Each structure stands twice: as C-alpha cells, then as structure tokens.
Amino acid sequence: MKETAPNKASCTNTRIIIPDVWDSAAFSSIFLASSFFCSQAESTPAPAPQPVGQVRKRKPLARLPLTATICKKITMNEIRVREMIDNDSEVISKAFLNQGWNKPISQYIQYLQETREGKRTVLIAEYKGEFAGYVTILWESDYAPFSTHGIPEISDFNVLKKFQRQGIGNMLMETAEQCVAKHTGIVGIGVGLMSDYGAAQILYVKRGYTPDGLGIFYKGQHLKYGEQAQVDDDLVLYFTKPLSPSAK
Fold first, then answer.
1. What is the C-alpha separation between 207 and 243, in angstroms, rounded?
2. What is the pTM for the complete model shown?
3. What is the rounded average pLDDT of the residues 147-155?
C-alpha cells in the first residue's frame, strides 16, 4: 500500500439510530424480487455492477498507530462499541473457544497489523464490560466487483451465542456503516447461503442490503448455469447498501 499523509477522518459526529421494529416481510419480498429479475437475465452475460448511490474512491489510510481513532466509541443500553486494541486478541480467541469455535489468536494479531497498515478497521462490542462480538471493515475488498468500484466490505461479523438477540449485532453494523459513510456512499457485504447464515441473511436484508446482481460466488468465480459446487462456507452471495448522507 502506498504511503500517504495520515487520514484524520473520524466518526465524531455519528448518531446511532436503531429501529425498534423491523418489517418481517422484507426478506421474503426482496428475495422473491431478486429471484425474478435474476431469472430474466439468466440467458445473457451479467453486466458490470453499477453501484447504487454516490461512490467516492476512498483514500487509503496511512499506517496509523493503534491509538488513532477511525470510528467513534458508542455506548447504548450497556452495549459499548470501540476499536480493537492489543489486549483483545487473546480475549476474543478464548471467548469463541469457550463456545466451541476455533478462532486462533494469530488471526487477530494479523487484524491488528492490518489496522496499523490502514487496511482494516476492527470494531469490538462489549456487554456490561464483557466481550460480546466484533465486526471488521475491509477497506479494499478481496471481491473484485467491490474493489474495482472502491466499495469497502464489512467482513468477519461475529456475535457470541450467549449475547445474540440483544441488539449487539445491529449496533456493530450501524457503527461500521456510519464509519464507512465518512469515506464513501456505499458499502458491501458477503453472506453464506447455508442455513447457518440464516440470521445474518435476514439481518442484512432488514438493514437495507440488496444482492449485487452477479449471482452466487464460489472460490473466486461466479457460478454459471449448469455448474456445480459443494455447499460449504465458501458459497457466498454479495450484497451492497447505499449509505445515507445523514449518517456521515
């Protein structure tokens, strides 16, 4: 990554707005509409993605010290969202190990390094002072349709099972989106297609994400009619969401 002058953008004017009631029919309506339009385009090559909303190519963050603040610390209803610090790596790994998930410390040490290089931002959620979950912002996505158009990707989103259904996931997503809105008018995300990802699929649609229209992505390529793939964590559908100027 090319060195640039430090980017002093922050989320100091961010307001958190989390709806109390979601429309339970939203997922079905958008999914059916998406399926219809995709079926109409099945016989023709997919066009290049046209991002929704204004897109401003984000300038890369310079190698920032971990004390630099990119996103505002948010506290609401005993839930606190802040950026990752050195001591978090072991805490996160141990917390997920306790619920049977193998997430090695080395993964989070790598995240810290990418934070220093301005490649990633990691947001940590705590509930009553206890680690509850995290989400990361990958400023230059590995997914080519996003990186080509300068669309940051919300990536690796996890909430501990014992803290789910308490608004923590929504608060992490809201904070991440408002942080991205400081740099561009659109954000992307990928989600697995298995039932294990059902809660995430519903959450993203409720939050206004829609499929990018390029179809199912599997191990580096979009699947075409007649192709087969193993159903696993690498079977993904990508979504985008335009960000409101009011969130900036």
1. 11
2. 0.69
3. 96
